[in-house]
Write a structure and sequence with these properties.
The chain is built from 13 helices and 4 strands. The protein is mainly α and about 325 residues long. It has one domain: ABC transporter involved in vitamin B12 uptake, BtuC. The strands form 2 sheets. A two-stranded antiparallel sheet has the order 1-4. α4 runs antiparallel to α5, α6 crosses α10 and α12 runs antiparallel to α13.
Length: about 325
């Protein structure tokens, strides 16, 4: 009898132990990225006086926040073992639809259209993965082309530009000297961190990403959880669409295309594993900051544009390799 009790207690304690081990490993990975940000900052500060200017640092934060808003939803999808290649195309279509409504004089209607359409895309992605059981990469890659085609058809090769100043403040405005998108990043970061660390739903996403079959056997509603994270990814694409639209003051059918690869890079630099079960939204925020600093530094140092993708690729590869080696070492020790 006592043996059964001991085994029951051990089984009950095992998930908590795994959770503590994961959080500890995650904290080490986050500390590594904070150190990397400090190292890049020191190098750039010694290389150019312009880097430490207030205007430039705020610009870096603004660029990082725009990437983060789009990358935050993708992070949750990847943590749960999925993927979403349609986020940038979702942003494009949502921004184009919103632009027409905003230009006609109704910013609130434009915002509602952007959020509604982006969430609808998330629902479709979720159904494709959970009900049709399509591979996430294939389902969202197909959705990318569908959304891009709809955006091309809707815009007809034209551009919508010139929005009200009140709406533009969402992307270009300041509050107490800080860009408005940075506040949005802070709100999303806080909410997502509390969600993943302090709720059963958030912890279940890691379980699903680590072992979907085991999660299903333990009673987790895997299909519903996956559907919801794709909806969240769609919602964040809609929010990012509004901020990006306000920032550039124009909408066209190709506006989101350059964002896809940098956003994926920010997620990976932040330590999220493409295999699922590992990563954090805070890590993605740090990854977006690292990427924004590298791009900003290359511009300040007048590095030719054709070399910039190479440098970003090297930084991405170095960060991912260092993280993999660190995780392997910690797992052997742990």
């Amino acid at each position: 009898m006592s043996g059964l009790r001991e085994r029951a207690l051990a089984a009950e304690a095992a998930p908590r132990e795994r959770w503590r081990h994961r959080v500890g490993s995650e904290n080490v990975a986050l500390a590594f990225r904070i150190g990397l940000i400090a190292a890049i900052g020191i190098v750039l500060a010694l290389s150019t006086d312009a880097f430490l200017s207030t205007a430039n640092l705020l610009n870096v934060l603004r660029q990082a926040s725009l990437m983060f808003l789009l990358a935050s939803g993708l992070t949750l999808v990847i943590v749960a073992g999925g993927f979403d290649l349609s986020i940038a195309a979702n942003l494009t279509l949502s921004a184009c639809l919103a632009a027409a409504a905003i230009k006609s004089g109704s910013p609130w209607l434009g915002a509602a259209i952007a959020l509604g359409s982006s969430v609808a895309v998330g629902v479709l992605n979720g159904f494709a993965v959970t009900l049709l059981r399509l591979p996430p990469f294939l389902a969202t890659y197909a959705m990318l082309w569908i959304l891009q085609g709809l955006a091309f058809h809707y815009m007809g090769g034209l551009e919508i530009y010139g929005f009200p100043a009140a709406f533009r403040a969402l992307g270009t405005g300041f509050l107490l000297g800080i860009p408005v998108p940075v506040y949005l990043m802070g709100v999303v970061l806080l909410a997502a961190t509390l969600f993943t660390r302090a709720t059963n739903f958030g912890q279940e996403l890691y379980t699903i990403g680590a072992n979907r079959d085991a999660a299903r056997l333990s009673g987790i509603p895997v299909g519903k959880r996956l559907l919801l994270v794709y909806v969240v990814s769609g919602l964040m694409a809609g929010i990012a669409a509004l901020v990006f639209l306000a920032r550039v003051n124009a909408a066209d059918s190709g506006m989101g295309e350059p964002l896809l690869l940098p956003v994926i890079a920010a997620v990976l630099i932040g330590g999220t594993s493409l295999f699922g079960g590992v990563g954090s939204v805070l890590g993605t925020a740090l990854g977006a900051t690292i990427l924004a600093m590298v791009i900003n530094g290359m511009n300040l140092l007048d590095i030719k544009a054709q070399w910039q993708p190479l440098v970003v690729g090297v930084v991405l590869l170095a960060a991912v390799l260092a993280d993999l080696m660190g995780r392997g070492r910690r797992e052997r020790i742990g």
